[in-house]
Amino acid sequence: MQRLSALYGRLLSGLALAGCGVLFAMMMAICVDVLLRNVRLVPGVYGISWANEVTEYALYLITMLTAPWLLRRGQHIRIDVLLRALPKRFAWYCEWASDTLALASCVAVAVYAGKATLASGKSGSMVIKTLALPEWWLLAPLAAAFALLSLEVVFRMHRLYGAERAPRDDAVTAS
What we know:
The protein is mainly alpha-helical. The chain has one domain. The chain has five helices and two strands, in the order ααααββα. α1 (2-38) runs antiparallel to α2, α2 (51-73) packs parallel to α5 (135-162) and α4 runs antiparallel to α5 (135-162). The protein starts with a helix and ends in a 13-residue tail after the last helix.
């Protein structure tokens, strides 16, 4: 299980790196758009018409690419003040309850998003703004990200099972 977890960790690191690439591309598109709107480098070109729309999609994609990696590193939002005040063993059980709820939620979203992606692909739905894109292109990252989040929660549960009977030490609010 540890080898599989390590391989999975490398996959998530690769996705986070891809998220960085998307962020860089988004930044470049914004810079070029602002430059072209303010400096007439190319006659008749007054910015990039699709830059705002692509930026919206990029923000979503960055979130989907990096969420499982952040969860693995314990850098997600976590409020653990109560867990630190509870007896260690009881707090450990609370961690289990939280992970169980997280797993159920992630699986539900992954399944629903997967069904929505397939239905959108079958119907040929399009999102038409400045650009025209198949709707399933926008839904697929949601299904994939929540499937990956589900798998990461399973790995978290495995690590919790093998750890001290106390709350996790990752992403604590105070030392």
